[in-house]
């Protein structure tokens, strides 16, 4: 479950501990950084502390945007000071609160991403998104078939490994699809049949053809501009494409170190963690 943490009261934290659910909390850095784009940082921090007190230390989702892209070390150091090592920086996309990446120079975004890579290689963070980027950068040949569709976005699991649920209960391949109302897959109460889901997901991933320059681009494997949910926005595609092409030589310069790190850190290490199981087991009758 993803939350901004502002409503994690003592009672809510007790309930989450009881059912064994460890949420992921959105936090973009220290309060003075977080509140530049979001609000109520102090309430978010209070919610995180309540979770930590109950052995539900959350993974932290960090949106990278114009409010913090030049402050990666400050953000990382703040999280480490709070004991929050498990993170998910959105190194791929500009969705949601980071949809203003057009305000960031691609060179600055590439530098911020590479600095984050360095902090992960140094052992400071356990970041799920950076881990996937490093595994893709170091891999040879095509990734597993279930990670690849005709859109060419190797890292995309939209409708394949995960779905997004909208506020009205409708299902979509990912949060960006949900925001744009692209490729509805039914609803929580009435999901589509598996064959129809597969047909729609395949159609979504194949709805645009890659440009010829993309097919031979050395940064294609780690570039999110391939995502078909983004190609309706030329500004997003341009920013992500240029940032990925600028990041690629930086990754290649550190490839020996990346390959060592990848050999020591399987992706399973970054799978979502469950909270502690309830001690009392199933509820029993009061009688």
Quick rundown:
The protein has 287 residues and is α/β, with parallel strands linked by helices.
How many alpha or pi helices?
11
Task: Report the average pLDDT across residues.
Answer: 83
Q: What share of the residues lie within helices?
A: 40-55%
CATH superfamily: Aldolase class I
Walk me through the structure.
With 287 residues, this protein is α/β, with parallel strands linked by helices. It has a single domain, classed as TIM Barrel, CATH 3.20.20.70. The chain is 40% helix and 7% strand. A five-stranded parallel β-sheet has the order 1-2-3-4-5. Strands 6-7 form a two-stranded antiparallel ribbon. Strand 3, helix 4 and strand 4 form a beta-alpha-beta unit. Helix 5 crosses helix 10 and helix 6 crosses helix 11. It is globular, with a radius of gyration of 20 Å.
Question: Which descriptors would you attach to this protein?
Answer:
287 residues, alpha/beta, TIM Barrel, two-stranded antiparallel ribbon, 11 helices, 7 strands
